[in-house]
Amino acid sequence: MIINNELETFIKQVKKEALEMDIPIMEDDTINYIKKYIVENKVKRILEIGTAVGYSGLNYLSLDYDISLVTIERDENRYLKALQNFKEAGLESRVDIIFKDALEVDINDKFDLIILDGAKGQNINFFNKFKKNLEPNGTIITDNMYLHGYVNKDEEDITSRNLRALVRKIKDYHNFLEENEEYDSEILKIGDGIAVSVKHNNI
Q: What is the mean pLDDT of residues 194-198?
């Protein structure tokens, strides 16, 4: 439940501006799924890789006063805009925004939920780096598992060499999750495809 109508209006404005500026943000279905997950699983501490302008983080923090967020962004312009957005929303006291490449960040805290929404070709590295920060029975959610449909296309139909390389990395991540015995992973046909990886409680 959104804390108040003013915050809800502000979040919609942030979304509008991001779309106008071609800044990638989560699809509505994905945001709604994660928000529902946070509420149903009583998630309080969230780590997010890939802040962009703070749109997704604003959505998470709007759910409950007890929710806190650590979010990492390597693009300076987006980082500064996110700082501004969290401040204007009055939520800056519950968010720690780190301006750095996520692979260069060391965090000791534990989180109920980790959301991977940064550089798609680094998902395996992100997963391996930050899994130590997950609470027992915690969950890692990864966005853009379908990469706007390209993951399901024949490789010869993709003309861009860079895009083909990225698709291969995402397919490698699919295989990584499937073979990972520490986590039960499921890829859901929500938004651009999300992977939900639940940590076994005996690991």
A: 97
